[in-house]
Amino acid sequence: MNSGIYGAIVFLHVISAVLAIGPLFLLMPIIKRVRGVETDIEQVYLSIINVIIRLVMHAGHVLVYTGVLLLVFGPWPWYTSWVIMTLAVLLLSGVFLARGFTVVLRRFKNPDADKNKILDRLNGTSWLYIGLMLIMLWLMVQKPMLW
Predict the structure, then answer these.
(1) Dmax over Cα atoms in the chain, in whole Å?
(2) 101 close to 122: Cβ distance less than 8 angstroms
(3) Which of 1, 22, 85, 120 could be bridged to 73 by S-S, CB 3.0 to 4.6 A?
(4) Can you tell me the distance from the alpha carbon of 125 to that of 127, in angstroms, rounded to the nearest whole number?
Protein backbone atom coordinates (compact mmCIF):
# COMPACT_ATOMS: atom_id res chain seq x y z
CA MET A 1 0.00 0.00 0.00
CA ASN A 2 1.12 3.53 -0.71
CA SER A 3 2.84 4.95 2.40
CA GLY A 4 0.96 8.25 2.00
CA ILE A 5 -2.40 6.51 2.19
CA TYR A 6 -1.26 4.34 5.09
CA GLY A 7 -0.02 7.49 6.88
CA ALA A 8 -3.39 9.17 6.32
CA ILE A 9 -5.15 6.17 7.84
CA VAL A 10 -2.80 6.31 10.85
CA PHE A 11 -3.54 10.03 11.20
CA LEU A 12 -7.32 9.42 11.09
CA HIS A 13 -6.88 6.61 13.59
CA VAL A 14 -5.03 8.86 16.04
CA ILE A 15 -7.49 11.75 15.64
CA SER A 16 -10.44 9.41 16.18
CA ALA A 17 -8.74 8.01 19.30
CA VAL A 18 -8.43 11.53 20.68
CA LEU A 19 -12.07 12.27 19.88
CA ALA A 20 -13.20 8.95 21.35
CA ILE A 21 -11.69 9.71 24.76
CA GLY A 22 -11.07 13.46 25.10
CA PRO A 23 -14.65 14.72 25.26
CA LEU A 24 -15.43 12.31 28.09
CA PHE A 25 -13.32 14.47 30.40
CA LEU A 26 -15.83 17.27 29.81
CA LEU A 27 -18.60 15.13 31.31
CA MET A 28 -17.31 15.33 34.88
CA PRO A 29 -17.77 19.09 35.39
CA ILE A 30 -21.06 19.00 33.49
CA ILE A 31 -22.37 16.18 35.68
CA LYS A 32 -21.47 18.24 38.78
CA ARG A 33 -23.40 21.22 37.43
CA VAL A 34 -26.53 19.22 36.62
CA ARG A 35 -27.11 18.45 40.29
CA GLY A 36 -29.77 20.66 41.78
CA VAL A 37 -30.47 22.93 38.80
CA GLU A 38 -33.86 23.88 37.40
CA THR A 39 -35.50 21.65 34.82
CA ASP A 40 -34.85 24.04 31.92
CA ILE A 41 -31.14 24.29 32.67
CA GLU A 42 -31.02 20.56 33.34
CA GLN A 43 -32.27 19.91 29.81
CA VAL A 44 -29.51 22.09 28.36
CA TYR A 45 -26.87 20.13 30.27
CA LEU A 46 -28.43 16.82 29.22
CA SER A 47 -28.33 17.98 25.59
CA ILE A 48 -24.61 18.75 25.95
CA ILE A 49 -24.04 15.33 27.53
CA ASN A 50 -25.88 13.68 24.62
CA VAL A 51 -23.76 15.57 22.07
CA ILE A 52 -20.58 14.49 23.85
CA ILE A 53 -21.68 10.86 23.93
CA ARG A 54 -22.63 10.92 20.24
CA LEU A 55 -19.26 12.47 19.33
CA VAL A 56 -17.45 9.79 21.33
CA MET A 57 -19.58 7.07 19.75
CA HIS A 58 -19.01 8.22 16.16
CA ALA A 59 -15.30 8.77 16.77
CA GLY A 60 -15.23 5.22 18.12
CA HIS A 61 -16.72 3.99 14.85
CA VAL A 62 -14.01 5.77 12.85
CA LEU A 63 -11.44 4.37 15.28
CA VAL A 64 -12.62 0.82 14.66
CA TYR A 65 -12.78 1.18 10.87
CA THR A 66 -9.35 2.78 10.60
CA GLY A 67 -7.97 0.15 12.97
CA VAL A 68 -9.29 -2.60 10.73
CA LEU A 69 -7.72 -0.90 7.71
CA LEU A 70 -4.40 -0.62 9.55
CA LEU A 71 -4.53 -4.32 10.35
CA VAL A 72 -5.42 -5.28 6.80
CA PHE A 73 -2.73 -3.14 5.18
CA GLY A 74 -0.17 -2.99 7.99
CA PRO A 75 2.66 -5.24 9.08
CA TRP A 76 0.94 -6.83 12.10
CA PRO A 77 -1.08 -10.01 11.83
CA TRP A 78 -4.49 -10.06 13.50
CA TYR A 79 -3.48 -12.92 15.82
CA THR A 80 -0.76 -11.03 17.71
CA SER A 81 -1.48 -10.79 21.41
CA TRP A 82 -1.82 -7.00 21.58
CA VAL A 83 -4.32 -7.01 18.70
CA ILE A 84 -6.44 -9.72 20.33
CA MET A 85 -6.37 -7.92 23.69
CA THR A 86 -7.28 -4.63 22.01
CA LEU A 87 -10.25 -6.30 20.36
CA ALA A 88 -11.34 -7.80 23.69
CA VAL A 89 -11.18 -4.42 25.44
CA LEU A 90 -12.93 -2.85 22.44
CA LEU A 91 -15.87 -5.22 22.84
CA LEU A 92 -16.06 -4.42 26.56
CA SER A 93 -16.00 -0.68 25.91
CA GLY A 94 -18.74 -1.03 23.30
CA VAL A 95 -20.96 -2.72 25.85
CA PHE A 96 -20.26 -0.01 28.43
CA LEU A 97 -20.87 2.81 25.99
CA ALA A 98 -24.18 1.37 24.82
CA ARG A 99 -25.48 0.21 28.21
CA GLY A 100 -23.71 2.64 30.48
CA PHE A 101 -24.61 5.91 28.82
CA THR A 102 -27.72 5.55 26.67
CA VAL A 103 -29.72 3.46 29.13
CA VAL A 104 -28.73 5.68 32.05
CA LEU A 105 -29.69 8.86 30.21
CA ARG A 106 -33.07 7.37 29.29
CA ARG A 107 -33.75 6.76 33.00
CA PHE A 108 -33.07 10.44 33.68
CA LYS A 109 -36.30 11.36 31.86
CA ASN A 110 -38.36 9.25 34.27
CA PRO A 111 -40.03 11.67 36.75
CA ASP A 112 -39.70 9.15 39.62
CA ALA A 113 -35.98 8.58 39.02
CA ASP A 114 -33.34 9.40 41.64
CA LYS A 115 -31.36 11.87 39.56
CA ASN A 116 -28.36 11.98 41.89
CA LYS A 117 -28.03 8.21 41.71
CA ILE A 118 -28.25 8.35 37.91
CA LEU A 119 -25.61 11.08 37.78
CA ASP A 120 -23.34 9.03 40.06
CA ARG A 121 -23.73 6.07 37.70
CA LEU A 122 -23.03 8.27 34.69
CA ASN A 123 -19.89 9.62 36.34
CA GLY A 124 -18.70 6.11 37.26
CA THR A 125 -19.43 4.80 33.78
CA SER A 126 -17.47 7.70 32.28
CA TRP A 127 -14.40 6.87 34.37
CA LEU A 128 -14.72 3.17 33.57
CA TYR A 129 -14.93 3.89 29.84
CA ILE A 130 -11.95 6.27 30.07
CA GLY A 131 -10.00 3.50 31.80
CA LEU A 132 -10.88 1.00 29.07
CA MET A 133 -9.90 3.50 26.37
CA LEU A 134 -6.57 4.15 28.10
CA ILE A 135 -5.87 0.41 28.20
CA MET A 136 -6.59 0.19 24.47
CA LEU A 137 -4.39 3.22 23.86
CA TRP A 138 -1.55 1.58 25.77
CA LEU A 139 -1.99 -1.65 23.80
CA MET A 140 -1.95 0.18 20.46
CA VAL A 141 1.03 2.39 21.26
CA GLN A 142 3.18 -0.05 23.22
CA LYS A 143 2.21 -3.17 21.22
CA PRO A 144 3.27 -5.58 23.99
CA MET A 145 3.76 -9.24 23.18
CA LEU A 146 1.70 -10.75 25.99
CA TRP A 147 2.07 -14.37 24.86
Answers:
(1) 58
(2) yes
(3) 1
(4) 5
